[in-house]
Amino acid sequence: AITPGPDNSMWIAEFGSGALASFDVPGVKGTMSIKQYPIPTGSSLPTSAATGADGSVWFTNIVNPAPGTTTLQVGRVGTGVGALVSARVSGAPKAGSPLTCTYVNNHGWRIVKTRYQWLRGGTAIANQTAKKFTPRAGDKGAKVSCRVSLTFSTVLNQIGTTSPAVSVQR
């Protein structure tokens, strides 16, 4: 359960200690720095960690307060880096006028794959997975947005984000 963090640290879910930890290895002659983030829930067993589009490190946590009872939690630790990826829709939001989904990679990790999905009212529009989408007459009044998923090469991580919605004009 290790993930590269947006702050150029590596993050690990410490299953046996009930904490997340980040560590830096500054080079061959540098001193490693380790920071620990205890999970406030008692009997915590963090199992997975991943960097999110919001710049936080997200984790899953198994809680066993008593034999026979188990709860699964999802939590996050803010890294202070901010959003890693942002998306927006550009173009005139009206029927027959093409819209374009653009994104900004705020971190700089090298992207090896980009996927798009257009949404109407928050629901995926079938077969609309290109960078551009042209609303039809039936889309008038609908809120349209796009979701972008980026796969980064060196960090073996995928991050997705959804743009703010635009209203297709009547």
How does this structure look, described?
The protein has 170 residues and is mainly beta. It is built from no helices and 15 strands. The mean pLDDT is 87.
What best-fitting shape do the alpha-carbon axes yield?
A: elongated
The count of β-strands is: 15
Helices and strands, in order, run as EEEEEEEEEEEEEEE
Structural class, from secondary structure content?
mainly beta
Question: How much helical structure, as a percent, in the residues?
Answer: under 10%
Q: Quick check: average pLDDT?
A: 87
The Rg value, from CA coordinates, equals 20 Å
| Residue windows where pLDDT falls under 50 for at least 5 positions | none
How many helix segments?
Answer: 0
List the helices and strands and how they pair.
Blueprint: E1 2-4, E2 10-14, E3 19-24, E4 33-38, E5 44-51, E6 57-66, E7 69-77, E8 85-90, E9 99-105, E10 111-120, E11 123-124, E12 132-133, E13 143-152, E14 157-162, E15 166-167
Antiparallel strand pairs: 1-2, 2-3, 3-4, 5-6, 6-7, 8-9, 9-12, 10-11, 10-13, 13-14, 13-15
Features:
single chain; 170 residues
Structure in a nutshell:
With 170 residues, this protein is an all-beta fold.
